[in-house]
Write a structure and sequence with these properties.
The chain is an alpha/beta fold. It has a single domain, classed as Rossmann fold (3-Layer(aba) Sandwich). It is 39% helix and 15% strand. It is built from eleven helices and seven strands. It has helices at residues 3-16, 22-25, 72-76, 97-111, 113-116, 130-145, 168-171, 180-191, 229-241, 258-261, 266-284; strands at 31-38, 47-54, 82-86, 124-128, 152-156, 217-223, 246-251. The strands form two sheets. A four-stranded parallel sheet has the order 4-5-6-7, sandwiched between helices. It has a three-stranded antiparallel sheet with strand order 1-2-3. Helix 4 crosses helix 6. The longest helix has 19 residues, at 266-284. It starts with a helix and ends with a helix.
Length: 285
């Protein structure tokens, strides 16, 4: 991962990411797909959000249409509305831009819950990889700002720690979809010279948070061959120690993003089914 390869990877994602096409997201006309410009962080430009509703979504690449197809079944059933934020990407827009954009999108959604058909007392946040780290950081920010209240957070192989202190953060080298070099590049893109130092916010790197109490019920998942494995396990343990209800899953032999890149494998099917069951139970509460 370098400045030069990042541009090409972004281009390829934009050209071929699953679910990028609006027609595909409509699920044969059953889902309304809408994009809006909504207020960004104070003093910053507006942000784009993708809204999926029933007729009646490493901080350096990707977009607001990536991975939202996994949430379409809940929209189709009429049990959820999905709002996906097009947050600004590093290194063009380093910290705190990404997490502040995510929080601004969450605040807009909560304040416009009635128009969107959302129950403001039943809000959850979710993310994958870098987006998982941003979801965790946004949940911390929402708690500390006392708005809005979140019921659940779904953190899928989240990127939580910039310090590279764990064994797993160094074990994947020149192989797999996200090795330690890619991770180092991403964190440096987000934090610059602050990476690994004392001046990094808990909202940028949630593993740095000293207080994990009063956070929403958490689903958190990792693979055993995942570079983020150890920081995820530690975060889950600390959440539990702080009194947060945690559903932790570690899938044997699995690498970063396994259930979204090799979705036909037996372990991927088991992982996806487990996550879907958690979401359905959360929506039924």
């Amino acid at each position: 991962m370098t400045d030069e390869t990042l541009r090409e990877i972004r281009r390829q994602i934009a050209a071929g990411s699953p679910g990028l096409d609006s027609e595909a997201l409509t699920a044969d006309g059953r889902v309304r797909v809408e994009e809006r410009q909504v207020p960004g962080p104070e003093g910053e430009p507006d942000i784009t959000v993708l809204i999926l509703s029933l007729h009646g979504g490493g901080m350096i690449m990707g977009g607001h249409r990536d991975h939202v197809s996994h949430l379409l079944p809940h929209v189709i059933e009429g049990s959820a509305v999905v709002v996906s934020v097009e947050y600004r990407l590093a290194p063009d827009h380093p910290d705190p831009a990404p997490v502040e954009d995510c929080y601004a999108g969450l605040v807009w959604m909560a304040k416009n819950a009635a128009e969107l058909g959302i129950d403001p007392e039943r809000l959850m946040i979710a993310g994958v990889g870098g987006g998982g780290g941003l979801a965790a950081g946004t949940a911390l920010l929402a708690r500390d700002c006392a708005f809005p209240s979140l019921n659940h957070q779904i953190l899928i192989c989240p990127m939580l720690d910039d310090r590279f202190e764990t064994h797993s953060s160094r074990m994947v080298d020149r192989e797999g979809v996200w090795d330690r070099h890619s991770n180092l590049y991403a964190w440096t893109s987000v934090l610059g010279e602050r990476r690994g130092g004392p001046d990094v916010s808990q909202y940028a790197a949630p593993a740095r948070a000293e207080d994990l109490s009063r956070l929403p019920r958490t689903y958190i998942a990792t693979g055993s061959a995942e570079g983020f494995r150890d920081e995820i396990l530690r975060y889950a343990g600390r959440l539990s120690e702080a009194g947060v209800s945690v559903d932790l899953h570690m899938w044997d032999g699995s690498f970063h993003g396994f259930d979204m890149t090799v979705d036909h494998a037996a372990v991927s099917c088991a992982s996806s089914a487990t996550r879907e069951e958690f979401i359905r139970r959360a929506l039924d509460r």
